[in-house]
Amino acid sequence: MPAYDDLMAFQRTTEALGQVAGRTGWDQETVMPRGSAPQRAEEMAALEEVLHARRTDPRLGDWLDEAHAPDAAGDANLRELRRSYHRNLKVPANLASELARVTSLAQGHWASARAAEDTAAFLPVLAEVVRLRREEGAALAVGTNMDAYDALMQDYEPGGNAADMATMFDAMRPRLLAIRERALAAEEAPTLSGHFPQANQMALSREIATAFGYDFTRGRLDLAVHPFSSGSGLDVRITTRVDEDDPFNCIYSAIHEVGHATYEQGVDATHLLTPIGRGVSMGVHESQSRSYENQMGRSEAYCGWLYGRMRDVFGDIGVGSERDFYRAVNAVGSGFIRTEADEVNYNLHIMLRFDLERSLILGEMEVGDLETAWNDRFLSDFGVAVDVPSNGFMQDVHWSVGLMGYFPTYSLGNLFAGCLMAAARRDIPDLDTDLARGDPSAATGWMRKNLQQFGALRPPREAIEHATGEALSAEPLLTYLEAKFGDLYP
């Protein structure tokens, strides 16, 4: 199998360079000096030029024509390489490089403009990002039956499309709104009070991350404006953020990112630096973070343990019982911030972003109209007027770094999580007993065994169905939400 062996040797170097590029991005968002941004943009563009040249090297086409896979993993490697090779051929090298340069700069513009609540400082660079992504989407759509938005979605959810997402949202919206209406009409949930020092929050988050299976010998936890996970294989890093008046922000962001990170750490080591040596899609990735954060971390059983542990760490937290703490963790409200949204409202946040970014990419709306469109839609969907840009269209980092087509995968991940956790609870009948001890290892071990170890061996939906033994459906998620919040808000 000389063609296959040559192909995989070449690809191993490309994968390693991709990891270096990712580490450079992590550095930019965590510890890079602010004044370094212009040079970092040139460095990112240079790396992208090298990567694009390798990803479109004519030898790849020859090897792919000649290669014969030795096994199922080899078949999957060839599937992933063919898909990426033919996509990359459609994108001109100068466009790939310019996207890397502009999005690197845009991230810094977004962070500073967000801090200053300065829309005018952000819109010009966002307009340039949108222009480039429209151009890329149009190039990727050539020769397919996809529009530019669907073509961009393939970077995050291979096989996904906007029509399927819209159908999913249409099915979810009425049942979510019914849950929200009942919750908002009920007695307001308790809230925590007190001072929660950063050092204590970070120490507790590291303790919890370890319990959820995160390997700190192959990773680290740092602070960032917007929490994220970066890397795969032997170097997978996570971030969180701290508000000393609200410890849930730090703790649950950390659990969420641990879900992403343990997926990458859990891939079988034989797939290291191969095309299948990572999570298969962002929807499947999000299934892990949402399972960890919500269905385990916000369960009544786990909240009982966390209540006691937080009192150990912080002293009086202003809530007098495990049940009130559970209600505080799962309070339903029409807040501005997606990453802090409750499980009921979260998908409504995604629906808003999905509609707006699709309109942007398809040219149905221009960047100058985005803030007004966001504010009008938010008021309509949530009944609250946006007060400042950081609570509105500037809250998320995604658009500044060009991640158009990414947002719908968050809701798809919730749907996947519903299927996975229903299967995990079927197979682990005593799971709540473990969670009540602060021990999620039975469930996280189930995820590693049934899903994580395979990386991208199977396409996204097939991966979920293989793990659960059931056909994909939104019903497990909606049934879970109705039962949980029906109990919290009878």
Commentary on this structure:
The chain has 490 residues and is an all-alpha fold. It has 2 domains: 2-153, no CATH class; 162-488, Neurolysin, domain 3, CATH 1.10.1370. The chain is built from 20 helices and 3 strands. The chain has a 3-stranded mixed sheet. Strand 2 (229-232) and strand 3 form a beta hairpin. Helix 1 runs antiparallel to helix 2 (37-55) and helix 8 packs parallel to helix 20. The termini are far apart.
How are the secondary structure elements laid out?
Blueprint: H1 2-30, H2 37-55, H3 58-66, H4 72-90, H5 93-116, H6 119-141, H7 148-153, H8 162-185, H9 198-211, E1 221-223, E2 229-232, E3 235-240, H10 247-266, H11 282-296, H12 300-314, H13 322-329, H14 343-361, H15 370-382, H16 408-427, H17 431-435, H18 441-450, H19 460-468, H20 475-488
Parallel strand pairs: 1-3
Antiparallel strand pairs: 2-3
Helix pairs in contact: 1-2, 1-3, 2-5, 5-6, 8-14, 8-20, 9-10, 10-11, 11-16, 12-13, 14-15, 14-16, 16-19, 16-20
Identify the notable features of this structure and list them briefly.
2 domains, Neurolysin, domain 3, EC 3.4.17.19, Metal-dependent carboxypeptidase, protease, carboxypeptidase, metal ion binding, single chain, about 500 residues, 3-stranded mixed beta sheet, globular, mainly alpha
